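CORE FACILITY INTAKE
Project code: CF-77B
Contact: R.S. (postdoc)
Sample description: multi-component assembly, four entities in total
Requested service: structural model of the whole complex
Turnaround: standard
Below are the sequence entries exactly as provided by the requester. Do not edit them.
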Amino acid sequence: MIKENLSSQMRKGVLEYCTLLLLNRKRAYASDIITRLKDARLIVVEGTIYPLLSRLKNDGFLTYEWEESPQGPPRKYYTLTDKGREFLVELETAWNDLNESIAHLKEKTL
Amino acid sequence: MIKENLSSQMRKGVLEYCTLLLLNRKRAYASDIITRLKDARLIVVEGTIYPLLSRLKNDGFLTYEWEESPQGPPRKYYTLTDKGREFLVELETAWNDLNESIAHLKEKTL
DNA sequence: TATAGTACTATGCGATACAAGGTATCTGAA
DNA sequence: TTCAGATACCTTGTATCGCATAGTACTATA
């Protein structure tokens, strides 16, 4: 592994968590999500976010509604389902567990 | 994505960080590493750790020395190189950045 | 010699991030 | 009316990584 794809590899699966976190606050459409993740210093591109949203929708974690746009084509606004909120809790737990494991590895032995 | 491979995906790339963290404290051989990661609640198996160690070695982040074992075949004891220690710092930064991004997404808007 | 235990290696699969390219809609200027 | 640009969505192919599985090699002991 080289430096360039370092964060790329480390984020595998985490983007799912971040996207759900984001949508839990407020509904959004794909381009909007990309912008918001960029605000959080997470660089994401279209080729990543569209398949991700489709997966989450097919698993029943998200739903969407088409809505007219003031400019340009209509938008798909995604929102969390109840199942999605439950899944978000699980992801949160998994993330916290990972952090605990790392903390454990840091302080251990010497 | 289903619940089972949730943590699996999330850990992608993180295991590299954990392994380097672990070896930064004390040298170890593969089976030893698996045991130590298990102590930190990270379940890892042989098929994961051996390719990972090979990659890190080929990238110059690790070196190893063969050493006799009190029982069974000789062991490959891995240690970090200077380049490996530099890489560990980068991984640490990447990890902290990810945590900051998530914290940002949690508190943002509402 | 045979068996069990330990350690390392190789192969194939599924999931994911990403680059690159494509389609469709709307607005405004020529 | 036509066309360029912006917006928004979607698809395909590639590389990487964790993992299951199977296999190889060495040592000690009966």
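Facility notes:
- The domain at 13-107 of chain A is CATH 1.10.10.10 (Arc Repressor Mutant, subunit A).
- Chain A has five helices and two strands.
Invoice: internal transfer
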